[in-house]
């Protein structure tokens, strides 16, 4: 069984990775794949949506005669990440109360 990843959680993962450093699409996908099973065909719509919402900006950089499009988190993206982290902590705390409940606690 796999636990479903919501769009908001996937956004949070991408933003958290980009908060550490800028990445081009393929490298970013590989970083996310280290944590969850995701395809490039899933990642690029996420990146487009985050860019459209001003969470990310892009720039191109030449590498071995080809351009790579790098993604960079914006201040709006950093704020969005903080909101996601707060929601995640609340969600995780609520689940932990059930998953790790002792004996007869209600």
UniProtKB/TrEMBL annotation:
<feature type="domain" description="Transcription regulator PadR N-terminal">
    <location>
        <begin position="14"/>
        <end position="83"/>
    </location>
</feature>
<dbReference type="InterPro" id="IPR052509">
    <property type="entry name" value="Metal_resp_DNA-bind_regulator"/>
</dbReference>
<dbReference type="InterPro" id="IPR036388">
    <property type="entry name" value="WH-like_DNA-bd_sf"/>
</dbReference>
<dbReference type="Pfam" id="PF03551">
    <property type="entry name" value="PadR"/>
</dbReference>
<protein>
    <submittedName>
        <fullName>PadR family transcriptional regulator</fullName>
    </submittedName>
</protein>
<dbReference type="InterPro" id="IPR005149">
    <property type="entry name" value="Tscrpt_reg_PadR_N"/>
</dbReference>
<dbReference type="InterPro" id="IPR036390">
    <property type="entry name" value="WH_DNA-bd_sf"/>
</dbReference>
């Amino acid at each position: 069984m796999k636990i479903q990843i919501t769009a908001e959680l996937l956004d949070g993962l991408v933003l958290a990775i980009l908060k550490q450093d800028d990445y081009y699409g393929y490298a970013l996908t590989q970083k996310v794949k280290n944590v969850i099973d995701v395809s490039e065909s899933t990642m690029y719509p996420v990146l487009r949506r985050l860019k459209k919402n001003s969470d990310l900006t892009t720039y191109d950089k030449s590498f071995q005669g080809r351009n790579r499009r790098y993604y960079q988190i914006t201040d709006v993206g950093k704020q969005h990440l903080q909101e996601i982290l707060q929601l995640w902590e609340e969600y995780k705390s609520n689940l932990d109360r059930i998953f790790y409940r002792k004996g007869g606690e209600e």
